[in-house]
From TrEMBL:
Topological type in the membrane: Multi-pass membrane protein
GO molecular function, a single term: transmembrane transporter activity
Protein name per UniProt: Major facilitator superfamily protein
PANTHER family: INTEGRAL MEMBRANE TRANSPORT PROTEIN, RESISTANCE PROTEIN MDTM, PUTATIVE-RELATED-RELATED
Domain of life: Archaea
Transport listed as a keyword: yes
Main location: membrane
Organism for this UniProt entry: Candidatus Halobonum tyrrellensis G22
Subcellular locations according to the entry: Cell membrane
Matches recorded under Pfam families: MFS_1 (PF07690)
């Protein structure tokens, strides 16, 4: 597909076809972009269970390890708005395939890193490549699905949790038979395959031309509504808690709960096993009931469960707490993202979602550095206790935002 900026009709190729979640054009592309998200998430999340081995090999403190993860998430966040805006004006395919290719380069650089600066450089390229992908992917899902949008988002976001399960299993395997470097080339092979599939299947072509980012216009549109302001702060606290917990959970379980590396990785994987089940269900519940009530209920469950993990003194209680934490934490994104998509104009939804993601993921990217610094100064128990407070505050803000929306209506 080609044409001038601002004229791309993303939904036109599928608008006359039924919304199928598995088969047909819509189902085929949903599965492809979801596998891409699985692979990108799996590669990024692979850093977390490998972090103790990487730190030992390269001689990193907890703070320096946290900074490396912050680089990935920070640059990932920075690209959310530009990638969404560009995918609205150019084509989703251009951003999706470009992001996958750049991520391949970054993961290969991570595998080759022998010094801390080289590790940071690889992390930066991974962050940039990963940052180009998810907002256009969500834009494509919204193009393809309207009536079944919540279910489609549930499947797509659950695919990221499958990446976490893969990361946990792959980390355990490579540490048992090789070194931490061995996992990243496997991720690259899958990413390359997805890029090829999207190139062949998508009815959109590649469009490369200059596009204005319209940052001021987008910012005024998003921040003009009190409801969106409250939701943005709430999502930022959620993202901070999510990135903090996911980045250091295996390390916390080893250092703070005396788990073996294999058991800690299993606990990490449990987050995403639960998430892969919960997210489609949460998306369907959000389609039937009020999303502004389902979302804070999920956050409250996550906060209570994480508090249980912090105070638990036996492995069994920790595992139960992690599972309940995962249920609440992972139920939130499909419900809230569908809620946000309902609020955005159709012709700017990719850019609007990208702008919000840049903000909340950017603030959330500070989470791993926070955990590493607090752990160095005190311990991981103190760091994770602070995340409980963030989740409770986020719960209250979502309720306030929902109330503001109902008053405006």
């Amino acid at each position: 597909m080609s044409g001038s900026a601002g004229t791309t009709d993303h939904a036109g190729a599928a608008e006359s076809e039924p919304e199928r979640l598995v088969t047909g054009y819509s189902g085929r592309l949903l599965l492809a972009v979801s596998l891409g998200w699985t692979s990108i998430q799996g590669g990024r999340l692979l850093l977390s269970p490998l972090l103790p081995a990487i730190s030992t090999d390269l001689g990193l403190s907890s703070t320096r390890a946290g900074v490396a993860i912050t680089v990935v998430w920070g640059l990932y966040a920075l690209l959310q708005y530009p990638s969404g805006r560009l995918s609205d004006r150019l084509s989703r395919t251009t951003l999706l395939v470009g992001g996958l290719c750049l991520a391949c380069v970054g993961f290969l650089a991570l595998a080759a890193a022998t010094t801390y600066p080289a590790l940071l450089a690889g992390a930066a390229v991974v962050g940039l490549g990963a940052g180009l992908y998810p907002t256009p992917a969500r834009g494509l899902v919204s193009d393809l699905f309207v009536e079944r949008r919540g279910q489609a988002f549930g499947i797509h976001t659950a695919s990221g949790d499958l990446g976490g399960v893969v990361a946990a299993g792959l980390a355990t395997l490579v540490l048992a038979v090789a070194t931490w470097r061995a996992g990243f080339p496997l991720v690259v092979a899958v990413l390359a395959g997805v890029a090829l599939a999207l190139h062949v299947w998508s009815r959109e072509g590649y469009v490369l031309e200059r596009v204005g980012l319209a940052v001021g216009e987008t910012g005024r549109r998003l921040f003009a509504e009190p409801r969106l302001r409250w939701l943005l702060v709430a999502y930022s606290l959620y993202a901070f808690s999510w990135q903090s917990a996911v980045s250091f959970l295996p390390t916390y379980l080893q250092a703070g709960k005396s788990f073996s590396p294999a058991l800690a990785n299993a606990g990490f994987g449990a987050l995403f096993v639960v998430g892969a089940v919960v997210k489609p269900l949460a998306g369907a519940v959000g389609d039937r009931f009020r999303r502004d009530l389902v979302a804070p209920a999920a956050l409250a469950l996550a906060a209570v469960a994480l508090a249980g993990v912090v105070v638990a003194s036996t492995p069994a209680l920790v595992v139960v707490g992690v599972a309940c934490f995962a249920a609440g934490l992972m139920a939130y994104p499909p419900v809230m993202q569908a809620y946000l998509m309902d609020s955005f104009p159709t012709d700017s939804m990719g850019g609007d979602l990208g702008a919000m993601r840049t903000f909340y993921i950017g603030l959330g990217a500070l989470g791993p550095t926070y955990v590493g610094a607090v752990a160095d100064a005190f311990d991981y128990r103190v760091a994770f206790a602070g995340l409980v407070g963030c989740l409770f505050v986020s719960t209250g803000l979502v309720l306030v935002g929902g109330r503001a929306g109902r008053r405006a209506a």
